[in-house]
Amino acid sequence: MRLRILGRMSDRRQPRAAAIYCRISRDARGDALGVQRQQDLCQDLADRKGWPVAEVYTDNDVSAYSGKRRPEYERLLADLESGARDGVLVVDTDRLTRTPAELERFIDVADRCGVALANVSGDLDLSSSDGRFRARIMGAVARQESEKKSERLRREREQAAQQGRSHGGRRPFGYEPGGVDLRHDEALVVRELAERFLAGESLPALAKDLNERGVPTVYGGAWRTTSVRTLLASARIAGLRTHKGEITGEACWPAIITREQHERIRGALGDPRRQQRGRPPARLLTSMVVCGRCGATLASSQRRGRERRYVCHPTVGSGACGRIGVHADYLEAEVTDQVLAVLASPALADMVSTDDRDDGAGEELRAAEERLAELARDFAEGRIGRAEWLAARDVAERRVETARRSVERDTSRSVLASVPTDVDALHRRWEDAGLDWRRAVLGAVVDRVEVHPAQRGGRAGFDPERVRIVWRA
Ligand SMILES: [Zn+2]
Fold first, then answer.
1. What domains appear along the chain, each with residue ranges and CATH number?
2. Ligand 1 centroid vs 468 CA: distance in angstroms?
3. Among 31, 101, 241, 442, which residue's beta carbon has the most beta carbons within 10 A?
4. Could you read off the pLDDT of 308-351 as tens digits, one per residue?
């Protein structure tokens, strides 16, 4: 029933009982207007136009184009059809209708029932073909924008998943939440840590320094050796993406340290000898004792009022079993006895006197390390591809390893040359010597000390049968 006369369409009818319709959509960008804000804007508009507002209809948390039902919108349409409401105020027409089909349905209702529509960004008279045309265009534009937006949100989500940062974890140190933008003060700390570590400072010393300076972790707590290690070892700070521990390519976030620094840090962290650098080894067998069950390096540990022990210490991700522990004093005495016996044997004199020392070993090591760094640079700057880099890196790493062993052999020989050959003199020297000399001598002949599980029904207390010394060839 068309009661309106064409000529009246331009002089907007005054509704008797208008409705304000608000819809809040969950918008990841956070630019959605809150319901209260929408209501205020519509009320202002109603006041200006002199429309009496009879009721506010609000659909909450319903996203555009999701196809979800909007109970309040349905109720509004019913009220418009029954004639209980004859005007609608919205902030934007895309609050009202989400699809062209919805728009057509609204136009149909508005047309049939003589509903006036006002939106804050400009009135639309749906009773005129011009107005309907404008509404359709605006609807189409809004729809396109919304599709673009959902497309963008989907892309962002996919990207986040690829980057492994959508798992609700904490933000990475050095980066803002989301992990893409730098947090500059922290980035400077990361760079400083990398440089100091590569210059030889130990992880515990760095952690201590951060705590003394009051630099918080992302958890707000204190730094530990492991947290500094994890930070420095991460490929993320070199702008690299990883998947299951393998570097998979360039990341979309900026690097804080260079790829070369990253390679060198990884090299240093993987080398137990260099891990200790800068920190005086506290105990005779520090870093030499390994767990006979899982192969982890045993740590010296002492609880208050208890004897000192070397223990398999299970830290997160280390794979250590945590099931081996041994009395430190007894173990050290046992190893010392065995080592002194070996040192006093004639075989050692032969070994020391064999002078096939290779003076080029240090040079070879430096060259191999430089080659490794060069490869990382080539990869970083795109001169070689990933597969090429990985293959060349394997070769270069083996070369570094060989050169390092050669340097270590030379070092061992010169240490052993300082060991007295006379048994009594050897024991006196051992008693008088400091920890550094003892450790150097041990390191020259002992590759590692394995501590195996206690035998069931074995001796009470320390059992030397559990100790196996692996000698250097
Ligand atoms: Zn273990």
1. 6-158 (3.40.50.1390), 184-275 (3.90.1750.20), 289-344+421-471 (no CATH)
2. 15
3. 442
4. 899 998 765 667 888 999 999 999 999 999 888 888 777 666 65
In the numeric block, which tokens belong to residue 450? 């394995």
Higher confidence at residue 97 or residue 415? 97
Q: Which pTM does this prediction carry?
A: 0.36
CA of 20 to the centre of ligand 1 (A): 69
Q: pLDDT higher for 363 or 424?
A: 424
Residue 259 C-alpha to ligand 1 middle, in angstroms? 33
Structural tokens at position 170: 């904490």
- The confidence score (pLDDT) of residue 390 equals 76
Tokens of 200: 């030889």
**Cα(301) to centroid(ligand 1), Å:** 14
89 in Cβ contact with 46 (< 8 Å) = yes
The environment of the single-atom ion ligand 1, i.e. residues with CB closer than 5 A, is 291, 293-294, 296, 312, 321, 324
Cα dihedral sign, 376-381-386-389: negative
